[in-house]
Structures are given as structure tokens and as C-alpha cells.
User: Which sequence fits this backbone?
């Protein structure tokens, strides 16, 4: 017994031998110590002052063992604290040593750079007098004076603002106290008013409840009196008819006794054609005996028919109890008609059932509904039996079925249809009083079996004279032939049959209510969940994967459904769309052909003039922002099947929910349409449709918006990489963004994971990689964290926070290429921070990297490379901020006279980065003067880089390379006319000039960087350089986007999933051109 137990357990131990007695004594002593309370142990050990303390111990240890365990535990914790203190001291010492080493290294590098700069010779110009240098010096002096004046004014304004802030703060505190007191007073007043209002509402509710109860009792009493009066009227009418029949029969008998020959002939015919139920002795007894026998037989048959109706009611009640679905309840209506058909035919009556659509409840007015007749007995018209007839309250507001059943929720009984002006013929819509029809009409509403008492359906029965033509009533003609007088089988609906119809209506109401309740429960249990991205990623890798997850979620929630996603490509007139995902299979699936049956619609094109079943139902315009529910596609003229003919349309329910595309424009428009079809028709209710729409809008739409923002950001980053790869001397260019940037409502912490979204040609394998500070080193995160807090947003590339140094000097830098364990000594890494300009404090978005790890360059980056990288980071910050917050794109310096042609096809935001560069290049060109052009054209022996730049500029505009082989051929074209042509040029045009000219210009400038031009050229040449490189990139990007559009691909998704390279394959896509010759010798770029 190693744990504390009751002492009666010890008493149960055996004590037959001495060892057993010793063991039992030891156990008893142990149990005494285990069960000993603390206060006894404290008193026993001489610590009576601690007897009132509260302690807990294990049931398997004594208090002495507990104290020993506590002493060991305290000693262990003390040793751990001492060790942690020692380790902390050691870390502080190492950190101090590391900082000292870093300071020494920086000082050494500064001294080395100063020594190198002191040995450089000043740049010499080809002219004796450098006007550019003089102008730069004058401008520098002017800027210095302006800066000094601005500093003085800024300091004075800062002092005044500080004093004003102190005054405003004091005044604000005083006003805030007053406002808070007023708000508190208003809150107390509102609470008192709310309490009084609730009391008044409760009182009014009680009074209204009592008034409604009184009216209900009065209405029930009036209904009872009306029913009694109706029954009395029917009985009086039947007694009158019976009296008329008897008087007429007596008159006929008197005429027969007087010896009329016509009566003898009729009597002999009746004897020869007597039915099987009449014996020959009836004829021997005379006409009175025969009439009496037939009347007795009729009464017996009526009694038997009433008994059968009671059995029918019992069967219907049993069937109603087993109805669980809407299909079962609707089938019960057909069973009511079929089981009442025999009894109704005996009385020459027709029975038919109509359903109210939509269900008439307290929220639905009768004028907004219609009664659609679905089941009818065989003696009804063909149109009524086929379910083609309906009764609309708007068209016939005085019809008894509308007034009594829909509005008053009461049964109606018309004894003579010819005397009621509101009765109409369902087939023609004419009043029955005008057709000469006679008979009786009964209509009974089917009410829901709940507190609402909603009208669900109507059961009607009539005895119109046209019903006698039904073959099922042929027995009546034979029976009347046996009688030599007028028709005594008068068409009439007995009270027993009316009661049976009322019981059937009650059974049908209970069945329909049960079905609706079960359907509501199933709809509430509809569980839709989009799930999580694959492989534990933070975001969905593509829209295709998101569409597949959406289809799988819908098919889990609605088993057996067929779902798809269609991409809308055109809106308004001529709307069109393409199905991009069908039943979870999309174009980017690993093996879309393996599930051909499940993805038969994948890739189908849809337009407003073609087949629209399982499509967008022509609701492809922004004018239809909500869902569309087609209850039955078989009866909807707008739905045409993809397979088969229009005559064989499937009967199914179709739900369409639009998904907006707001990432590319301030005004959202429909970008996709989600379609869900389910068999049978009507299987998707309004509640289920609302739940699916809420799921798509609440769960899927935010993910789509986030994915679209990420695609746009990746597209901007790709264009930045293309530009930097061409314009700088770096071998590798990448852009990484903080993983949470697309949903950041506040500045994101620089410690968030970084994801590579774009890279240059050789580094495409890096795109999509994510790293964190803890797992992969923290050089990038440390760089973002070092962005000066509180600094204003950058408005000039020089203000962008950047850092450039040797790769080995970066602490915690990671080389993604495992084969390159250590970089060369001359390798440098340049980082430029991408910062949001839309806030008072800069919010980091990511980093632009440029390095020359794989380059053959033996010298560091030049100053223009820094400017290019900073410019790209600043533009990316502006564009990413606009994309994340769905704000209009900012205007760059100057504007274009006309938009670029590619904007009409893809929009401005998809080429926003290049357009910003193009506007900047146009702005710089406008600043070139005639004297500067003359200076450029006046070079006799220009640096080698200038002819290549001028030649590439002219080739881009369509000049043949053979005409610009020599400098003398080029310089004569450097004039204002060339400048005007450059300003009006549209590089994104599809055919002017041909793409091969851009390819040739790109080959001529390949390997040339901004440093080569800015350090060896002039201002016009640098403007030509920026203009040419931007034009080449714009044309290549435009051609790539047009090809994607022609292939029916999504531009954003293609750009995000497979980032295009900055050369190579795209250059091959440009194709050959007959007018462009291969002039390798003349177009070879200069060596560095």
C-alpha cells in the first residue's frame, strides 16, 4: 500500500503468520504517516506556529518525504538561476565584442575608400569649357542657399508649432473633460429613456396579445356560425330537390295509371335492360316498387361510398405520417386525387390539387402568389391534368378560391356555380355564369401544421355538368337507363365527402409542414468550409487551387452537385466567359485529363448569344451583383444545354453567384461566376442559396481579393526585376515582400516572413521561397528593422533607405545556392527598402536586392546602380500601397497625351511600373534643350557607348540597322524632329514598328548598364538610354500579355504562377524580321 487508504483496508490484511503480522504492522505505521494531517505533523515536529498553514502533498508520500522533495527542488532552481545569470553575462560580453569588431571593420573600410578616391583622376570633358559643370556648380550654390533658408524657416516653424501644440493639448484636455461629462449625462438619459420605452412596448405587446386573442375567439365563433348556416342551407336545398323529385315521380305515376302508351314502352324497355342488381319481381310490382327499390339501392351505395371514404382518410393519414421529404409530400397530393377519384366519379365530381407558390405566410401578400394545379382526376380537362393551368390572384381577385382560401384561410362551398359571379373556368378564364354550367364547387385550403397557419396548397372539388362525359362514370348512364323518369341521381357533394376532403387537407398540411421542417434542418446543417492552403502554406498558390478548393467545399456540402467557375472576359453587350474550373479540376491541375467525366466543361467558352445552361445565365454585367437561382432549367427559356438538344433539357436546379474583381479598378465588377447545379429541380432552396452566397462572399471573396492583390504586387515586382536586370551592372536581381503585406491594415512588423515574388533570369527557382528571421538568418529582417523610425515617406530616390556592401560583410546572410559555399571577395549585395508612402510613419513592404555574386565584374557597383535600385524601390512602394489599399494609381511627373495602346486591353495597373518609368523618361526628354542636342551631335569621336545608345533609340522607332552603322549616319538625325518623335512614340503598339526592331535594339544594348552611360556619356545620352530600355521592356511585356489574352489565359494568374524571365524565351518569341540584317560587328556592345 504505497498510497494513503482508509484503515479498514489495513484491517483486511491476513495475520496468520509472524511475517504477515509484521507486514501488517508496517503497513499500518505507513498508513498512519500517509494519512497524517499537516497540523499534527507540525505539532509533532515542534512547529506548532505553522499548524495553521495549508500544504498539499502526494498521496504516496509522507510529510517528511514532502519536505525533503521541496528542499531538493529549491536547490535545483537556485542552481538553474545561477547558470542562466552566467550565460547572460557571457552573451553580453560576446555582443560587446562583436559590436567593437563591426565598428573597427567599418572604420577600416571608410579609410580604404577615402584612400582609393584620393587616387582617382577628375573626369575630363572633350570641350575646353564644361558648361554642364558650371551650371551644376551654380545650381549647387543656389541649392545650398535655399537649404539654409529652409532650415532657418523650418526651425522657427518647429518652435512655433511646439508652443501651439502645448496650448492645444491643454485646451483639448479641458474640452475633453466637458465632452466626457456631457456624454455620460446623455448615456444616463438614454438608459432611462430606453427603460421607459421597453416598459411601454411590453405593455403594448400585452394589450395587442389580448386583443388578438379576443379577435381570434370572435372569428372562430363567426366561422362556426357561418359553417352551421351553410350546412343548414345545403340541407334545405337537398330537401327541396328531394321534394321536387318526389312530386315529379308522383306525377309520372299518375300519368302512367291513366294508360299512356309512351309510359308502357318505357317500362318494357326498363324491364329488358335492368341491371344485375334488380330482380324480375320488381317489374311485377309496378313503377312505385321499382322506384323505391332503386332509391334504396342508391342509399346503400352512398352509404358504402361514405364508408370507403373513411377508409381513404385513414390510409392518407398513415401515408402523411411517413412523409419525410418534399417529394413524399408532393406525392401524397397525387395519392389524394387518385384515392378520391372513385368516390368523386360516383357523384359526377372532379377533384384537383393546386400548390401555392410562393408559400403564403404572414410576410407574403396573396396578390404576390399563384396557385399552380399539379394533380387532377381523370374527368378533368387535359390541360388541368398536365399541370399547365394556374390561378393568379392579380388576374381574378374575386374568385372564391382567392377570397376564402388565400385571404381568409377558410373553406368555401358554392351550391350553384351559375349564381356566383366570381367563379371562372380555369382553361379559358371565362366566368362560369356566362358558360351556362351548373353544379356545386368546394375548395379547402391546406394549412401548415404550426403557429403560422400558412396556406401551402388548395384541394378543390366540383360537380360541373361537363364531368359526366368521363368514361369512369359510365355506370351512371347505365343506371339512369333503367329508370323511366327524370334523372334522380343528381350531382351533389355530400357533407360526408366534404368532411373527408377536409381530413385529407389536414393530412397533406401535416406532411408538407414536416417536409419543410426537415428541409430547414438540413439547410441549417449545411456546412461549407474552404479549408486551408496546401502544404501548410500561408496563402493559396494560385486562383486555380482556390477554385478547386471552392468546388470541393460545395460538393461536400451538396453531395451530387455539379459546380464550376467561369472567368468573365467581357461585360455588357457581347458578354463572354470561359469555364476555368469544373468539379475541382482546373487548367493547372497535375492531370486534368484523368477525370474527363468530372471536368467535361473545362475550357468551354460562353457568350450571351450561345448556350447558357451551366453558364452565367446572361448575368455577366455589373448590373447583377447578387445571386441568381433557377428553380427548374427545363422550363426556363434562357437555359440551353451543352449536350443534346433544347427539347431534351435536363430538369435541375441552377444557382449562380458572382465574384467581384476589385483589385484592378476602383469600381468593382464581376470577374468570375460560380455555378452550382443539382438534381432534381427545386432541390436548392432560397435559404440554401443564401447560405452558399454568404459563404462565397464571406469566406471566398476575401481570399480572391488577397490573391488578386498578391498577383498585382508580383507583376509590379517582375517588371522591376526586368528593368533592373537591363539597366544595372548587377548579375542577379530579386524582390521579396513581407508575407502579410496584402492584408495589412497597419504597418507590418519587419520580423514577419519574407517571400520571394520575382527574380531575374537565372534566379527564377527562387520565386515562391519563404524564410524567417529565426530559421534562415536575419540579414534581410535586420535591414528592414533598421529603417529609421519616424522618417517621412521617400519622395526622391536619394531618400530611399538602402545599403550596399560586400556579401561577406552582411551578418546572417544566406546563400540559396548550396554549390556556392562562400561568395568571391569582390561580390557585393545592394538592398533597398520598399516603404509605403501613404502613412506618416513608413510601413515596410519588402526589399529590392541587386548583387553580382555570379558576375565577372571585379569592381564594385557604381553610383547609378544605386540610383536605379532606389528608384525601383520607391516606385514599388507607391504601387504596392495603391494595390493593397485599392487606391487610384498616383500620377507621375507629367502626363501622357494619349494612353498606351496596351492599357485598352489589360488596364493601367498591369503595366503600372513600366508606365511610371515611361512617364519619367518622357519628362526627362522634355527637359533636353536644343543646345544639348547640338552638343551631342557635335561629338567627332564620342565614347563608344553613345553611338550604341543613339542607334538603339533610332532602331526602336523603326529605322533599319543598316542605315545607322556609323556615327556619321546617326549624328545628322540628332535634332528636334527625333526628340518630337520620341515624345509621341507608343512602344506598346502591336505592330508599329515590328517586334524584331525591339529585339535588335535589345541585343545592341545587352550588357550595358546605367553606370556605363552616366559616367561616360552626356545628359541627352542618359535620357536616350532610359527611354530605349523602357520602350524595349514595354513592348516585350505588351506582346507577352497579348499572347496570353489570345490563348484565353488569365494574365494575373500566369504572371504570378510562372514569372517571365527578363530575356531568353521572350526574346525568341519576338520572331525574325526580313528587314533586319544580322550586323554582329556593328552592334557589339562595348566592353567594360
Assistant:
Amino acid at each position: 500500500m504505497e498510497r494513503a487508504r482508509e484503515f479498514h483496508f489495513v484491517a483486511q490484511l491476513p495475520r496468520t503468520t509472524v511475517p504477515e503480522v509484521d507486514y501488517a504492522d508496517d503497513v499500518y505505521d505507513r498508513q498512519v504517516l500517509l494519512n497524517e494531517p499537516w497540523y499534527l505533523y507540525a505539532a509533532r515536529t515542534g512547529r506548532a506556529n505553522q499548524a495553521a498553514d495549508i500544504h498539499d502533498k502526494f498521496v504516496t508520500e509522507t510529510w517528511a518525504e514532502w519536505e525533503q522533495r521541496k528542499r531538493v527542488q529549491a536547490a535545483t532552481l537556485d542552481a538553474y538561476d545561477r547558470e542562466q545569470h552566467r550565460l547572460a553575462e557571457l552573451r553580453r560580453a560576446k555582443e560587446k565584442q562583436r559590436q567593437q569588431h563591426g565598428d573597427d571593420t567599418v572604420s577600416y573600410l571608410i579609410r580604404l575608400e577615402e584612400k582609393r578616391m584620393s587616387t582617382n583622376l577628375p573626369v575630363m570633358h572633350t570641350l575646353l569649357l564644361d558648361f554642364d559643370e558650371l551650371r551644376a556648380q551654380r545650381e549647387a550654390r543656389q541649392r545650398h542657399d535655399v537649404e539654409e533658408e529652409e532650415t532657418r524657416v523650418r526651425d522657427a516653424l518647429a518652435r512655433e508649432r511646439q508652443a501651439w501644440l502645448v496650448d492645444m493639448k491643454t485646451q483639448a484636455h479641458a474640452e475633453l473633460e466637458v465632452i466626457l461629462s456631457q456624454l455620460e449625462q446623455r448615456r444616463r438619459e438614454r438608459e432611462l429613456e430606453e427603460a421607459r420605452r421597453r416598459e411601454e412596448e411590453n405593455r403594448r405587446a400585452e394589450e395587442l396579445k389580448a386583443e388578438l386573442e379576443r379577435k381570434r375567439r370572435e372569428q372562430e365563433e363567426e366561422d362556426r356560425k357561418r359553417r352551421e348556416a351553410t350546412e343548414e342551407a345545403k340541407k334545405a336545398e337537398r330537401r327541396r330537390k328531394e321534394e321536387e323529385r318526389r312530386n315529379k315521380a308522383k306525377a309520372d305515376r299518375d300519368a302512367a295509371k291513366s294508360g299512356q302508351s309512351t309510359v308502357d314502352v318505357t317500362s318494357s324497355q326498363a324491364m329488358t335492360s335492368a341491371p344485375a342488381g334488380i330482380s324480375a319481381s320488381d317489374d311485377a310490382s309496378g313503377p312505385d316498387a321499382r322506384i323505391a327499390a332503386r332509391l334504396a339501392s342508391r342509399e346503400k351505395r352512398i352509404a358504402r361510398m361514405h364508408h370507403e371514404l373513411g377508409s381513404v382518410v385513414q390510409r392518407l393519414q398513415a401515408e402523411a405520417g411517413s412523409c419525410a421529404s418534399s417529394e413524399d409530400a408532393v406525392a401524397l397530393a397525387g395519392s389524394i386525387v387518385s384515392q378520391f377519384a372513385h368516390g368523386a366519379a360516383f357523384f359526377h365530381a372532379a377533384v384537383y390539387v393546386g400548390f401555392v407558390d410562393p408559400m403564403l405566410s404572414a410576410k407574403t401578400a396573396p396578390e404576390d402568389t399563384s396557385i399552380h394545379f399539379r394533380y387532377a382526376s381523370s374527368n378533368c380537362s387535359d390541360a388541368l391534368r398536365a399541370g399547365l393551368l394556374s390561378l393568379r390572384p392579380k388576374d381574378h381577385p374575386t374568385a372564391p378560391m382567392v377570397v376564402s382560401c388565400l385571404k381568409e384561410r377558410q373553406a368555401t362551398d358554392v351550391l350553384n356555380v351559375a349564381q356566383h359571379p366570381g367563379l371562372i373556368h380555369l382553361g379559358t378564364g371565362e366566368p362560369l355564369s356566362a358558360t351556362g354550367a351548373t353544379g356545386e364547387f368546394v375548395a379547402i385550403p391546406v394549412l401548415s401544421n404550426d403557429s403560422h397557419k400558412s396556406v401551402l396548397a388548395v384541394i378543390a372539388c366540383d360537380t360541373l355538368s361537363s364531368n359526366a362525359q368521363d368514361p369512369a362514370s359510365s355506370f351512371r348512364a347505365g343506371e339512369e337507363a333503367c329508370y323511366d323518369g327524370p334523372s334522380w341521381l343528381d350531382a351533389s357533394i355530400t357533407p360526408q365527402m366534404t368532411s373527408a376532403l377536409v381530413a385529407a387537407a389536414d393530412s397533406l398540411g401535416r406532411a408538407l409542414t414536416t417536409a419543410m421542417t426537415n428541409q430547414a434542418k438540413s439547410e441549417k446543417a449545411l456546412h461549407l468550409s474552404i479549408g486551408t492552403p496546401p502544404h501548410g502554406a500561408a496563402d493559396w498558390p494560385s486562383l486555380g487551387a482556390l477554385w478547386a478548393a471552392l468546388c470541393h467545399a460545395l460538393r461536400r456540402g451538396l453531395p451530387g452537385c455539379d459546380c464550376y467557375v467561369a472567368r468573365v472576359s467581357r461585360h455588357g453587350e457581347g458578354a463572354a466567359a470561359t469555364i476555368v474550373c469544373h468539379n475541382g479540376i482546373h487548367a493547372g491541375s497535375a492531370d486534368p485529363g484523368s477525370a474527363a467525366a468530372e471536368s467535361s466543361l473545362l475550357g468551354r467558352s460562353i457568350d450571351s448569344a450561345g448556350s447558357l445552361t451551366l453558364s452565367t445565365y446572361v448575368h455577366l454585367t455589373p448590373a447583377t451583383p447578387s445571386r441568381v437561382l433557377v428553380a427548374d432549367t427545363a422550363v426556363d427559356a434562357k437555359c440551353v444545354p451543352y449536350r443534346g438538344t433544347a427539347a431534351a433539357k435536363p430538369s435541375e436546379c441552377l444557382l449562380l453567384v458572382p465574384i467581384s474583381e476589385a483589385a484592378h479598378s476602383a469600381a468593382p465588377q464581376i470577374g468570375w461566376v460560380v455555378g452550382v447545379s443539382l438534381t432534381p429541380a427545386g432541390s436548392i432552396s432560397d435559404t440554401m442559396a443564401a447560405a452558399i452566397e454568404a459563404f462565397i462572399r464571406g469566406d471566398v471573396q476575401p481570399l480572391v481579393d488577397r490573391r488578386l492583390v498578391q498577383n498585382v504586387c508580383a507583376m509590379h515586382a517582375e517588371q522591376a526585376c526586368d528593368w533592373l536586370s537591363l539597366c544595372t551592372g548587377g548579375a542577379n536581381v530579386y524582390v521579396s515582400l513581407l508575407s502579410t503585406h496584402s492584408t495589412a491594415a497597419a504597418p507590418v512588423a519587419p520580423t514577419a516572413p519574407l517571400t520571394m515574388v520575382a527574380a531575374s533570369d537565372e534566379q527564377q527557382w527562387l520565386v515562391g521561397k519563404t524564410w524567417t528571421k529565426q530559421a534562415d538568418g536575419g540579414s534581410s529582417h535586420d535591414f528592414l528593422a533598421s529603417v529609421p523610425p519616424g522618417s517621412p515617406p521617400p519622395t526622391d530616390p536619394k531618400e530611399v533607405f538602402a545599403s550596399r556592401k560586400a556579401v561577406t560583410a552582411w551578418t546572417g546572410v544566406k546563400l540559396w545556392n548550396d554549390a556556392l559555399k562562400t561568395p568571391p571577395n569582390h561580390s557585393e549585395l545592394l538592398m533597398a527598402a520598399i516603404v509605403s508612402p501613404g502613412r506618416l510613419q513608413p510601413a515596410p513592404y519588402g526589399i529590392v536586392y541587386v548583387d553580382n555574386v555570379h558576375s565577372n565584374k571585379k569592381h564594385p557597383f557604381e553610383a547609378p546602380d544605386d540610383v536605379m535600385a532606389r528608384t525601383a524601390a520607391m516606385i514599388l512602394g507607391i504601387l504596392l500601397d495603391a494595390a493593397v489599399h485599392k487606391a487610384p494609381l498616383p500620377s507621375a511627373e507629367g502626363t501622357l497625351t494619349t494612353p498606351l495602346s496596351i492599357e485598352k486591353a489589360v488596364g493601367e495597373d498591369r503595366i503600372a511600373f513600366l508606365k511610371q518609368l515611361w512617364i519619367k523618361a518622357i519628362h526627362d526628354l522634355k527637359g533636353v534643350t536644343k543646345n544639348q542636342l547640338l552638343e551631342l551631335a557635335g561629338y567627332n569621336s564620342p565614347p563608344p557607348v553613345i553611338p550604341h545608345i543613339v542607334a538603339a533609340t533610332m532602331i526602336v522607332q523603326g529605322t533599319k540597322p543598316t542605315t545607322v552603322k556609323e556615327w556619321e549616319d546617326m549624328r545628322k538625325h540628332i535634332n528636334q524632329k527625333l526628340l518630337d518623335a520620341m515624345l509621341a512614340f507608343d512602344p506598346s503598339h502591336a505592330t508599329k514598328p515590328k517586334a524584331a526592331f525591339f529585339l535588335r535594339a535589345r541585343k545592341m544594348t545587352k550588357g550595358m548598364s546605367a553606370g556605363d552611360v552616366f559616367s561616360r556619356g552626356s545628359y541627352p545620352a542618359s535620357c536616350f538610354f532610359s527611354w530605349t530600355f523602357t520602350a524595349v521592356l514595354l513592348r516585350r511585356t505588351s506582346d507577352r500579355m497579348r499572347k496570353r489574352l489570345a490563348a484565353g489565359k488569365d494574365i494575373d494568374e500566369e504572371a504570378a504562377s510562372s514569372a517571365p524571365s527578363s530575356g531568353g524565351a521572350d526574346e525568341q518569341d519576338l520572331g525574325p524580321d526580313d528587314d533586319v540584317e544580322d550586323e554582329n560587328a556593328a552592334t557589339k556592345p562595348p566592353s567594360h
